[in-house]
Design goal:
Length: 422
Amino acid sequence: MSELAILGGPKTRTQPYPQWPAWDERDIEAVTAVVKSGRWGGHPFPGPQTAELARRFSALQGGGYAVPMINGTVTMEVALRAAGIGWGDEVIVPAYTFQATAAAPMAAGAIPVIVDIDPSTYCIDPQAVERAITPRTRAIIPVHLGHQMADMDAILVIAEKHNLVVIEDCAHAHGAKWRGRGAGTLGHFGSFSLQSSKILTSGEGGVLLCRTPELAAKAASIIDCGRPHALGGGEEVAGEAMMGANYRMSELQAALANVAIERFPAQSRQREQMAAYMDEALSEVTGVRVLKRDPRHTTRSFYRYIFAIDPETFGIEHDLACAALDAEGISAGLGYEAMHHYELFHPEKSRLAVPNAFPEYFQFDRMSFPQAERASEHEAIWLDEAIFRSQPGDLDDVIEALKKIQRNAPELAEAARKWRQP
Ligand SMILES: Cc1ncc(COP(=O)(O)O)c(C=O)c1O
């Protein structure tokens, strides 16, 4: 019999990892209190729970004026609109991220200009950003991916030099710090998702951190049907309306987020300790590459723990390794496609971009981002965060499973060749 579970052998791990989202009586009490108060919705903005969330979120990240809203895609669209960026402007985004990072500029009427990533971190490559700048460039959206942070020093220098707005996509980076400063407080804006897979969640939701009280007031207006709001994104005030729509967070979601923030520091500490153990242990597995740990990234957070395999030395490609890991009882995934391969926002599929309106853009079939393609098609493996809320012995199962798969890679490669034969 094969040693590998995917080929009928025994599983390395039969116990499930802890469930997500984690919840307790506090969530039930918080939601119950909102239900009984009769103040369920987000109008007038901000409600008491939403205002409390704004305070707690700024405190968590250590700065910025926080404006809660409905998700972590709209946050980026609102940031662009608050900064006056829209129709025909170019916004630079990385080639390896969730499609929302490019869909948000398109929703604001801007054009996402995709650039490659740094293979050592899987985050946006600052040199590629610099090469992509044109007179129409207005903003950069670096994404802090998985458990990494983009090189914010280099990005801020480029932004300053070319007078660009920086929107940090922090959907994966709650609690992360760069040189001791919170993710999302380094650029002009920090965009956070509270969607259910995220490490701080209210089911759905988002928070936009703004560098100035003026930007926060504009963001609050945009999400509250254009009503004018006080500096810092506070209450409605007399004044001129602007164009906006209802992107308000409900009080029920804000109540859940407020409880999640109470639990967050302990969860984060645990994930960070476990991940440090994982860095060490993984580097002993043949054919596995641990992503660069930048010393300027002073506090790491773990939406997913990403590592790379070298298919040549590991013996198989990442898709096969990931399927084998899954069969061994280890929850892992392959991460994202390279941005130009997403079908979701191809002009001919979604009509988000008017075909032929900008013939120089959206030529997805002619684009090439070798580093993002290598990560997404050959080498990246994303371990679920739940693994990092267990005990150190539970991490050993991951290492044992990987070693077992690597040892038996020739057998698995041969089996896969047969499965794939027509
Ligand atoms: C990197 C990244 N950016 C943006 C988003 C969008 O967040 P939301 O789903 O809350 O709109 C997500 C997640 O879903 C994401 O992973």
